[in-house]
Amino acid sequence: MESTNQVLLQERYIINPVFLFRWEESQDAHVLLYPEGVVKLNQTAAAILKHCTGELTVDQSVDRLVAEFGQSDREVITQSVVKFLEASRDKGWIRIID
Amino acid sequence: MTKAGSELSIDGDGKPIWVSLELTYQCPLSCVFCSNPLDFESYQKGEMSAAEWKRVIREARDMGAMQIGFTGGEPTLRKDLEELVGYANEIGFYTNLITSGIGLTATRLKVLKAAGLKHIQLGFQSCDENVANTLAGVDSAKLNSYRKKLAIAQEIKALGFPMVLNIPVTRQNLPQVPEILQLAEQLGVEYVELANVQYYNWALVNRDQLMPSREELEWAEAEVNRFRERVGDKMTIYFVIPDYFDGRPKACMNGWGSIHLTIAPDGSALPCSQARSLETLTFPSVRDHSLQWLWEESATFKVYRGNEWMKEPCRSCDEKEQDFGGCRCQALALTGDADNTDPACSKSPHHHIVQQAIKSAELARELKQPLLVREANSVVAIKRASKMSAANRVASEEAECVNNTGSTCRKESSCKSRVLSDGEAVE
């Protein structure tokens, strides 16, 4: 599906306060909990959402992820992070902050 | 929000994800669409204590449940609600309160907030005061349900709770859908659930008087879509054409004994809130067994788990993994056999029963039969209902069917098939 929200590198995001983002031992995964629902996140998704605290720009969080995952191809990481954040914004998981 | 297309799925691990605690069946309202047990008053004496509930909450969490719903009846009638919410929150549950709002006050809301309550689902009937009070079965001179609900909705939002406004969709409130959505927007509600009435127990008695027509539903659907376009993603609206009209059965509970567990006020463990209508089954209690045993070992939870139990046309159907054969309670209530394909399915050999019910509701519209307010001595009322709908054979058969089963359920009743969301995440 084509994303309706564009995510730019200088923007900052937080997790939508309606969602609770946390580690769930029984699922061995991070989850997003919201009214009457659960989303189980895979490792990459969780790694990206962890940086959605409003402190870092998208660009800065890419730097962190490159370091965390020891990946050299920054361009590829940037693209997949932006794509995931756009999808997350479509789903209402994250919000932009001014 | 279906599980189709998920890459990572939380269900199927064999763990209960969602546990509903029906703290009490008592309720200050007498909703005409109530699907709680007809003999709701008989449960009051045997209600579980706070200590017993806490043990259940602990065991459910240990088994991996993440979502907990405090429901009823009206759960705020329990004075220990705050204590139970606090405990559930402390051990890692996402806590949901499913309430009519009657019995909540600003003070109690603050205590619940401090106890860690995460979300409130408020049952709401209409933005038209008269319609709202009629559907809630109250005399507005004694208890103005509409005004109380509106006031408490504002308090809930003032405290910053995420909120679901749950509106059971009936013939009476469907024309107000655009105004209801506007009201929800003004209140700052995040989710609106236009819930299809589940026609069990008292709701089944009133089915002829409640059921909207296909044309009305399609009109409402168009209004919902227009509203969605205007407000964008700040509000999520759940609305699906009900199974009676859709030709496809609901994926009831995401499958029997799959992710959902309900505990009745007396401690009986139920695969869904309606399950006690299945009289051939027994429902052992958490008072006598561990939750793990009930979930994993009891015959009740095993009987419709998976698809081994299925008869034709379900058995060879390529949609059985999507809808799990529909609802067992509806299959029993309408066809007399819980093992049958849900008659809401167009492939069911009993589908004509559902089509007759739609026709019967159309007929009742012309007869202008009144709604029956839920009352404690329901057997009498149901007989009255049967007599009144003498012109309407299908309805009276159903009413007797309810009478015989004497069964169970919760109120305001949308089947929780969206409990689990798509788990897929990234590339």
Total strands of chain A: the figure is 6
Structural class of chain A: alpha+beta
Protein structure class of chain B: alpha/beta
Shape of chain B: globular
Tally of DSSP helical segments of chain B: 17
Largest sheet, strands/sense/barrel of chain B: 9 strands, mixed
Tell me the β content of chain A. 25-35%
Largest chain-chain contact?
A: A-B, 28 and 36 residues
CATH homologous superfamily grouping of chain A: Coenzyme PQQ synthesis protein D (PqqD)
Domain count of chain A: the total is 1
State the separation between the terminal residues of chain B, measured CA to CA: 19 Å
**How large is the count of helical segments of chain A?**
3
| CATH fold name of chain A | Arc Repressor Mutant, subunit A
Span of the ends, CA to CA of chain A: 27 Å
Shape of chain A: globular
| Percentage of residues assigned to helices of chain A | 25-40%
How do the strands line up in the largest sheet of chain B? 7-6-5-4-3-2-1-8-9
* Assembly of the depicted chains: heterodimer
Beta-strand portion of chain B reads 5-15%
Largest sheet of chain A: 3 strands, antiparallel
Mean pLDDT of chain A, to the nearest integer, reads 90
